[in-house]
Each structure stands twice: as C-alpha cells, then as structure tokens.
Amino acid sequence: MKITNVRVIRFRTHADRWEIGHARLKPDAEIHQTVTCIDTDEGLTGYFFGGGKHGDQDGMTPDEQRLIEGQVRNMILGADPFDRELIWKWMWVRNIPEVAQSIIDCALWDLAGRSAGLPVYKLMGGARDKVPAYASTYPNIGQPEVYAEHALACKAEGYRAYKIHPHYFWNPETGLPTNGRPSNIRADIETVNLVREAVGPDMVLMYDVWGTYHTIEETIKVGRELEKLDFYWFEHPMPEYRVESYRRLCRELSIPVLAPEIAAGGVFTRAEWILQGASDMSRMDIRRGGVTGCRKTAVVCEAFGQRCEIHMAGWGNLQVMGATSEDTSEWYEKGLLAPGVNYDAPHPYLKHNCDPMDAEGYVALPKAPGLGYEPIWDYIDENRIAA
Among 46, 113, 133, 160, which residue is least crowded by beta carbons within 10 Å? Predict the structure, then answer.
C-alpha cells in the first residue's frame, strides 16, 4: 500500500464556546473545522478532525493547512502508510511544526485501524475499555462563588473530579479583560476554598493556571493553599521556559506539580524534565507528536514511575488512554466546560460524540475502527469553505 494524496477539507460548523477575555457565553458560535485525509492506492483513507486550539474540536489554521498540503504531502507521497514510526522520525528530523506532524500521525493511525478493523487502542494493545473523566472548566467562568456552584452541578451530573482553570487575562473584580498582570491570586485562593467547601472532601480536585503565575513566591503561596485543601495536582503554574523555577517548586511543595503542558519538544522535552526533577507528573497530548509521540511519552513516564496525565479531550487522546494503564494515565479531561456551555451537544458532522459519560463518571473507549470517527459527509460537503 502506498500514500497517493494528502488533502484537507475545511468546513463550517457550530458549537457553544466561552469567550475567555470577556467571561461570557458564545452560544452556537461558528467554528471552522478541518478534516485531514490521507489516501492510498488501495482505496483506504485515514482521517483526522481538528488540530486547532481545542484539539480535535476546532480546525487547523490556513497556514498549517498549506504546510500539510505542500511540504508534508510531498515528503510522504509514495510512502507505506503503515511505516508510521519512519514517517514520524522524518517529520521530527525536518522540524515540521508539532501540530502538523501530529495531524499526519493521527490520520495514519486512523488508517491503520480502519485497515485492521480495530480501534486504535486495541491496535496498540488495549489496557482498559473505559476511563474516569474529570470536569475541566474554561478559565474565567465567573466570580469565585460561580466555580463553587458549577463544581456542585458537575458533581450532580456524575463527575468524580473537577479541575479549575481560574482567573487569568480577566479581572474578576471589574469583569474586564486584562493583559495578565498582576495575577489574581486573592480571587484564586478564594475560589479553591469555596469549591472544596461546596463539594466536600471526597471529590478529586485539580488546579491549572496555564503558566500565568510569574513569580515563585506567588506560586508557592497558592500551592500551599492547594496542599491544605488536598488538591490532587498543581498544573502548569509558571511559564515553562524557566525549568529551574519548576525544580525549586517541586522541592518546595508536597502537592504533585504537573508539567510541562505546552512546552515544545514532545516526548524529548518531557523526558528531560523528568531527569531534571522539574515535574512530579508529566503532561502530554496528541497535538505534540501525535498518537505515536503521546504513547512514547506514556512509556517513558511508566519507566520512571511517573504519571503521564493526558491533556485535553478528544478521539486520539482517548485512544492513547485506552492503551495505557491507569497507574500511568488515570484521568480523562472532559471539556472545556462552563455554565451554559452544552459540551455534549452532538457534532453535526459526526454520527457520535467521542466521550459521553456514564452515570458512574466513566467514558467508554470508542468501538469503531481507527480513531472512532463516523463522519456525516453530506453535512461536511454542504458546509465546505474554499481553500
């Protein structure tokens, strides 16, 4: 089998979104989605939906599309689509941007699963058929009491864990956007206390400030509060280009520091952070090296006895979790969520969503071949956007 074409279809769709800078709901917002298609000479095609900031919920940028349909396409035409490891290495050696590299790798895994008639997690070697989900908020969903109310609502829906993205690039006192300075640690500390008080001692709580604390002092201050409240992890608290600050933080705090989240370099960067003692848990997703890179990171973490918690929702991330023990990758990040956002609304371009949650708080692994997509091509064709 040989790769004969790589093409990207761009189309319009709609979903609820939360406008972070203004802390307000954007119901049924227009979204530009993309599906990348890798065709072969045997009539088999692999697909990947997305590549944007919400992972597989939003499309890649036009520049990324041009890169994939140009340089990347020319590089892999004629290659065996089952040589995923070789193609993955080609893309790293040629410094293809991680998002483009990841889209190609995921589409190749989808193609392999469709060829074998198996979901990707079974192709890798299944470890489990369902994973526990946590409710992951948008940042700036409101004043501190809004987080407490939202956490209680999520608990009532069956979530056993809740993650707070707190107040950043938005001032909760004025309700106005900011440029991120100063940090809102007073409101953040109030938020984490109100949430713990609302949900009680048994709900698992996580905290992610997305690198917006810029001093070690304020980071430690919030971290000490999280320790008192028995939060499970402290995610990406400071900018990730300051590794020494993270080494110090890990020494200072008993709460596990989960990082890096968005640092470039995929598995290689995360392995280095482990060796540097700059993280207690690693963070990875399929936008930073595809299914291949994500799976490699989980294996490295397992070898060092460190968790590799998977970042973001989505088909590819879910498949990696299905092939990884809960001792290494425990929680599935469902969201982003906010009051009024109907995350579980059906996507009009797919027959099924990837992550409906059962009454016990678990998400089942998809059973369809490949990544699990069942596209509605009539909708996609009717809503195409010219390249």
Answer: 160
- Give the whole-angstrom CA distance, residue 87 versus residue 328: 27
Peptide bond before residue 260 is cis, with ω within 30 degrees of 0: yes
Quick: pLDDT tens for 197-210.
Answer: 999 999 999 999 99
- Asked if 223 and 255 count as a contact pair (C-beta separation under 8 A), the reply is yes
Indicate the pairing of strand 257-258 with strand 362-364. Answer: unpaired
Q: SS3 of 58, please?
A: coil
In whole angstroms, give the CA distance from residue 9 to residue 317.
22
Q: Which residues pair with 8 in a beta bridge?
A: 36
Rounded CA separation 118/222 (Å): 45
Q: Per-residue DSSP letters for 226-274?
A: HHHTT-SEEE--S-TT-HHHHHHHHHH-SSPEE--SS-TTHHHHHHHHH
CB 81 within 8 A of CB 47: no
Model confidence band, residue 129 (pLDDT cutoffs 50, 70, 90) = very high
Residue 50 CA: distances (Å) to CA of 106, 227, 271, 338: 11, 37, 27, 21
Q: Quickly count: other Cβ atoms within 10 Å of residue 302's Cβ.
A: 16
Task: Judge whether 74 and 6 are in contact, CB under 8 Å.
Answer: no
* pTM for the model: 0.96
Contact by Cβ (8 Å): 377, 348: no
Contacts 24+ apart (CB under 8 A), 244-249: 245/216, 245/219, 246/273, 246/278, 246/279, 247/276, 247/277, 247/278, 248/216, 249/216, 249/219, 249/220, 249/223
At 1, list the tokens. Answer: 């089998």
Q: What are phi and psi of 10, to 5 degrees?
A: -105, 135
Identity (one letter) of the amino acid at 155?
K
Distances (CA, A) of 191 to 194, 217, 238: 5, 19, 19
The residue type found at 241 is Y
pLDDT in tens, 146-177: 999 999 999 999 999 999 999 999 999 999 99
Spatial contact of 84 and 108, defined as CB atoms under 8 Å apart: yes
Judged by DSSP in three states, 207 sits in strand
Q: What is the DSSP string of 303-336?
A: HTT-EEEEPS-SHHHHHHHHTS-TTTS--EEEEE
